[in-house]
């Protein structure tokens, strides 16, 4: 007798057109295809005619009716847990104030810190869940969420707990990143080194509670220096935690090279990363995470060194950076579109950026492609051509979303 939970984890999708992303380039298309999974893992990816006959009676069969199927999208950089909003700062910027000016005047990240601290854990969960759900309904099955609007032990912990709960409730993977070194909280004004010390002291306690998958910092004029970031990374390394970095977003602070030196998973933003930084990233296997939403909202003009990334073989991921300040973006498909328009990625590069390379930016080897052995995370799309994923601005393209073989949207 098949167990109920096993049934939910076991299935066969027929009548599909697969975008497998197998290999290093191309969509990896398989027409007239089937997708099989067992215990939440893909155990068949290929031509329908090659499916063992018995499977049709043994498994839950879903007819894709000729629809395109991709791996579940992976949003590898978000700040989706926060309270309040910063619409008034959006208005101020439209009247000429810059992001840095607003931050120096006590707004920016610290304004979201005030709202996030004031919210109870339940209120924070209620405010944040719809954003994660919007990402899921647009095809995301794995989602990174950072802390960084708490900036004290209890509130960073609260954010990370909320992030974990979102993953449980939605039935998708949430990877948590500790971003204690995001901004200097007011109680540490003028004492940035002391604050960094506190952050390094919170980290093992949060890790002990199973709340930390990776560690991040904001290395920038309005964030933390290279020396301070290094301290945070050393604390992470001592605990065996992987690092990533908000690197070279507003200026070239050597962030790309720094995170590469620590064998980091990713350098994110990277608009101002130098050629030397790109080389260091290539040597370390550090992914460049492109965040075109922030670029777009801040009306930036300096493009990331895209040709250098390509020339040196640095994989480029694409993420939403969903956050209340620089990127109130709740669709990874829209991020892919912005990456094509602003950064001239091809639609195929954008899709690999939101799947294969995003998985790598999270250190997850078991997803990002439709291949036997990978997690059964996949999306059925209503579209006629794969390029439509990066073509439409908004709208509804998703027919169904599966995570670990279970339908989640
Ligand atoms: O990725 N650059 C720093 N962190 C965020 C913005 C956070 C905020 O403004 O609230 C980013 O752009
Ligand atoms: Fe960010």
Short summary:
With 409 residues, this protein is α/β, with parallel strands linked by helices.
- N-to-C span: 28 Å
Number of continuous helical runs:
17
The overall average pLDDT, rounded, is 96
Ligand inventory reads: N-(iminomethyl)-L-glutamic acid, fe (iii) ion
CATH homologous superfamily identity of the largest domain: Metal-dependent hydrolases
Sheet/helix structural class: alpha/beta
The unreliable regions are 1-7
Q: Strand tally, please?
A: 16
| Main beta-sheet strand count, sense and barrel state | 8 strands, mixed
Helix content: 25-40%
Q: Using the coordinates above, name the CATH class of the largest domain.
A: Alpha Beta
Count of the domains: 2
CATH topology of the largest domain: TIM Barrel
Strand content: 15-25%
Radius of gyration: 21 Å
Enzyme class: hydrolase
Binding site for Fe(3+): 77, 79, 246, 321
EC number: 3.5.2.7
Binding site for 4-imidazolone-5-propanoate: 86, 149, 182, 249, 326
What does this structure look like?
- This protein has helices at about 5-10, 55-60, 85-95, 100-105, 110-120, 120-135, 155-170, 190-210, 225-240, 255-260, 275-285, 290-295, 305-310, 330-345, 345-355, 355-360, 390; strands at about 10-20, 30-40, 40-45, 60-65, 70, 75, 140-145, 175-180, 215-220, 245, 265-270, 285-290, 315-320, 380, 400-405, 405.
- It is built from 17 helices and 16 strands.
- The protein folds into 2 domains: about 5-70 and about 370-405, Urease, subunit C, domain 1 (Roll); about 75-360, Metal-dependent hydrolases (TIM Barrel).
- With about 400 residues, the chain is an alpha/beta fold.
- Helix 6 packs across helix 7.
- The structure holds N-(iminomethyl)-L-glutamic acid and fe (iii) ion (FE).
- N-(iminomethyl)-L-glutamic acid binds near residues 249, 323, 325, 326 and 327.
- Its cofactor is Zn(2+); Fe(3+).
- GO terms for molecular function: imidazolonepropionase activity; iron ion binding; zinc ion binding.
């Amino acid at each position: 007798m098949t167990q109920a939970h096993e049934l939910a984890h076991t299935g066969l999708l027929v009548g599909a057109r697969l975008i497998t992303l197998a290999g290093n380039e191309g969509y990896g298309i398989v027409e007239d295809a089937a997708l099989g999974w067992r215990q939440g893992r893909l155990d068949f990816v290929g031509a329908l005619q090659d499916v063992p006959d018995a499977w049709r009676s043994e498994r839950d069969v879903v007819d894709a009716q000729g629809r395109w199927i991709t791996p579940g999208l992976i949003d590898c950089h978000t700040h989706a847990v926060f309270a309040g909003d910063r619409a008034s700062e959006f208005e101020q910027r439209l009247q000429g104030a810059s992001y840095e000016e607003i931050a120096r005047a006590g707004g920016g990240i610290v304004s979201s810190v005030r709202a996030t601290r004031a919210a109870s854990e339940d209120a924070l969960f209620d405010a944040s869940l719809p954003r994660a759900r919007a990402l899921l309904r647009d095809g995301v099955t794995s989602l990174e969420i950072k802390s960084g609007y708490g900036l004290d032990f209890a509130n960073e912990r609260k954010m990370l707990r909320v992030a974990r709960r979102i993953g449980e409730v939605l039935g998708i993977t949430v990877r948590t990143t500790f971003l204690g070194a995001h901004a200097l909280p007011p109680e540490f004004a003028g004492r940035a080194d002391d604050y960094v010390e506190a952050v390094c002291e919170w980290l093992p306690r949060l890790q002990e509670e199973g709340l930390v998958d990776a560690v991040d910092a904001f290395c920038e004029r309005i964030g933390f220096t290279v020396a301070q970031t290094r301290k945070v990374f050393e604390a992470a390394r001592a605990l065996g935690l992987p690092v990533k970095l908000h690197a070279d977003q507003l200026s070239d602070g050597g962030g790309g090279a720094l995170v590469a030196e620590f064998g980091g998973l990713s350098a994110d933003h990277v608009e101002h990363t130098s050629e030397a930084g790109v080389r260091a990233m290539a040597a370390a296997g550090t992914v460049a995470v492109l965040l075109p939403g922030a670029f777009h909202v801040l009306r930036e003009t300096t493009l990331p060194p895209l040709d250098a990334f390509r020339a040196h073989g640095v994989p480029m991921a694409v993420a939403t950076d969903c956050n209340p300040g620089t990127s109130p973006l709740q669709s990874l498909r829209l991020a892919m579109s912005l990456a094509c328009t602003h950064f001239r990625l091809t639609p195929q590069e954008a899709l690999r950026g939101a799947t294969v390379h995003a998985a790598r930016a999270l250190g997850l080897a078991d997803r990002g492609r439709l291949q036997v052995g990978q997690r059964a995370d996949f999306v059925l799309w209503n579209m006629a051509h794969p390029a439509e994923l990066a073509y439409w601005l908004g709208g509804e393209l998703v027919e169904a979303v599966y995570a670990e073989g279970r339908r989640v949207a």
